[in-house]
Each structure stands twice: as structure tokens, then as C-alpha cells.
Amino acid sequence: MLRAQVLKPIYIPSEHIEADRDLLRQRNRSVKDLTRVKNRVKSILMTKGIDIPEVYAKGSQVWSKRFLTWLKQVDMGIDEFKSVLLNFIEHGEFLRVQVLKLNRQVRALSKADRYSPNAQLVFSIPGIGLITGMTLLTELGPIERFAHLDQLCSYVGLIPTMHNSGNKVSVGEMTHRGRKVLKVMVIEASWMAVRYDPALHQRYEALRKQGMTANKAIIRIAKKLLNRFRHVVLTQTPYQIGVVQ
Predict the structure, then answer these.
(1) Which residues pair with 160 in a beta bridge?
(2) Could you report how far apart the first and last alpha carbons of the chain are, in Å?
(3) Contact 37/92 with Cβ under 8 angstroms?
(4) Whether this model's pTM surpasses 0.70
């Protein structure tokens, strides 16, 4: 089979790409840990019947320095409760510093010679920013290894499940296979893209008018966004936002 060139080789990333992936993955883990700490603090306040002031409940004041100052002064009644709260706050502040540090490292990575040309092209696509763009570039590797869009969508996990029984083929929900982190990021980026790209917004509205649910429609948009990503990297041309007449 090897002599007949029937075997298909697998892609083995270099050590540099593995290291770059680990940087993005560490940043993702730190963000999740920070979210858990925030949720635990809210849970502690809720169990003690303490309401967060409305001024800190939304907008730029959510987990701001002013909010943390108020949080440290909250009267928990019992010293042990206060100690637990302060420990969570200290842990959260540490994680926040770590996330900012990792963000700077990712930004520096995007300017490295091995990523800078493709990064600037990818950032021209509406909905794809620094973290999403660099995650796609590091996790996917050379885009040329995907012969067509279907292979790329299959790798990410943006394909439905298929059930074959004799001559009958049924299509189910979206597959659970694929790279979950990429799938989530692309879908989140698609929600942003439909707001800023007129062509994608028009396509999304057309799908909704056909009776498709919002979640199913955004999956179609996510595939188009992946196609745009693949196109700008392969052709080395910046993305031009579609103009609807």
C-alpha cells in the first residue's frame, strides 16, 4: 500500500507550532478559571442575601477596580465567610493579571515573522479578532493540508451526523466530533460577523426567513466564515467586506 501510494500521511505539527498552541490553550484555561472564580464569588454573595449594586451589574463596571473595592468592604457578618470571599478575590486578581500577561504574549506572537502575514489577513475578516485568529492559525496549521472546505469543516466539527441504513440516509444534529474550542470560537465569531458584514447579515436573515432557527442559521454562517478564512490565507489577499446593493 505504501509502494502504491495508497496510504495517506497524517499531519505532524512542528515543536514551534505545538509551543504556540500551548500558549493559546493556557490563555483559554486561565480565562475559564477566572470565570469560575467570578461565579463562585457571585454564589457566595447570593447565599448570604447580598445584592450586587446595579451600577456594578453591567457595562464597563463589571469586575472593575471600583467593584473590587466595594466587594472587599462587604460585611459578611462572620469572619470566616469574609476570609473565604477575600481568598476568592485574591485568586481572581491573580488570574486577571495572568490573562493580561498572556494576551500580551499572544499579541507579540501575532507579530512574529511566522504569523504576521497571515495574521493581518485573518484580522481583516469581520468577527475574527486577535484570540480567535491566532487560535485558528495555530490549531489548524498550514491551511493547504485541507484540500477543500468540507475537510476543514469536518476537522472543526461543523458538519451534521449521518446515519446510513440500506438505501436510506438520514441527517441528524451537528456532530460532537471535531475540535470543540475551534467550533465554539468560530460560532461566536459568526454572531459578530453578521452584525458588521452586510453580505453575511443578508444571508443570515434569508435563512431565518426560510424558517431556520437562529442556531442552525448561524452554523451556516460559521461555514461561510471558515471559507473566508481559508480563502484569504490561500490567496494572500485581505478580506473585502461585502456590499449589498
Answers:
(1) 174
(2) 54
(3) yes
(4) yes
| C-alpha cell at position 190 | 459568526
Per-residue pLDDT reduced to its tens digit, 11-28? 898 999 999 999 999 999
Q: How far apart are CA 169 and CA 178, in angstroms?
A: 22
Domain ranges of the chain: 15-110, 117-235
d(CA 110, CA 129): 11
**54-56-61-65 Cα dihedral, nearest 10 degrees:** 150
pLDDT at 166: 60
C-alpha cell recorded at residue 174 = 451537528
> Could you write out the DSSP letters of every residue in 34-77?
HHHHHHHHHHHHHHTTPPPPGGGSSGGGTT-HHHHHHHHT---S
Q: Is the pLDDT of residue 59 over 70?
A: no
Which of 107, 116, 102 lies closest to 236, judged by CA?
A: 116
Question: Can you tell me the distance from the alpha carbon of 218 to that of 186, in angstroms, rounded to the nearest whole number?
Answer: 10
Q: What is d(CA 56, CA 52) in angstroms, rounded to the nearest whole number?
A: 7
